[in-house]
Write a structure and sequence with these properties.
- The protein is 41% helix and 17% strand.
- The protein is an alpha/beta fold and 191 residues long.
- Helix 6 links the parallel strand 2 and strand 3.
- The longest helix is centred in the first third of the chain and has 13 residues.
- The relative contact order is 0.18.
Length: 191
């Protein structure tokens, strides 16, 4: 079993940011949320108050203006080409995608690619509210173990050393930059 982060790892970019911009162009009323999103951004990233989950809940409020099923389908119709060649060339039937992006955004593209195992943030597609924590860092390991117990991860791939907790439970790990893979350095801090 191999496990992969999604954004900037097997997808060229941040799918949540891309979907937000896609939705903003389609649903202009999303701009009315900009002041509260800016305030949440400053609170979390500048003053280091609150949790990433709380910040993201503020951000995901934009889904209230969307027709999620249609918008997500249209988004992936345009963005599917962002799936990286390295992944497509080595994809296996038992791959696991583990991501902080929301299930509602990733499940359609995973289904289209034939990826059967997706672990991602549980975000209500109508309200933007989380049920549980944002699926990142140590939470990824907890969620993986909850789903797969002591299953062995042969190889883990991510673009960020913030995923070191997942890399440490894999037999081998790789840092992904574009289409270039390099061996994971457990001594590095979050990139």
């Amino acid at each position: 079993m191999n496990a992969y982060d999604f954004d900037k790892t097997i997808y060229d970019g941040d799918s949540t940011a891309h979907f937000y911009l896609f939705s903003l162009r389609r649903h202009k009323r999303i701009v009315t949320l900009a002041p509260s999103l800016l305030a949440a951004f400053i609170r979390f990233y500048v003053f280091r108050r609150g949790t990433k989950t709380q910040f993201k809940e503020k951000m995901y409020r934009f889904v209230r203006f969307c027709d999620i099923e249609k918008d997500v389908a249209d988004f992936w119709a345009k963005k599917k080409s962002g799936i990286k060649a390295f992944y497509l060339s080595q994809q296996k039937e038992d791959d696991v995608i583990i991501s902080a992006s929301p299930v509602f955004l990733l499940s359609p593209i995973c289904a289209e690619l034939g990826i059967k195992h997706l672990i991602a943030s549980e975000v209500d597609p109508k309200t933007g509210k989380y049920s549980g924590e944002n699926c990142h860092e140590k939470e990824k390991v907890r969620r993986f173990r909850e789903c797969f117990g002591d299953a062995v991860i042969e190889e883990f791939y991510s673009d960020s050393y913030s995923d070191d907790p997942m890399a440490r439970i894999a037999e081998k790990a790789f840092l992904v930059k574009g289409e270039v893979l390099s061996n994971w350095d457990h001594g590095k801090k979050q990139a």
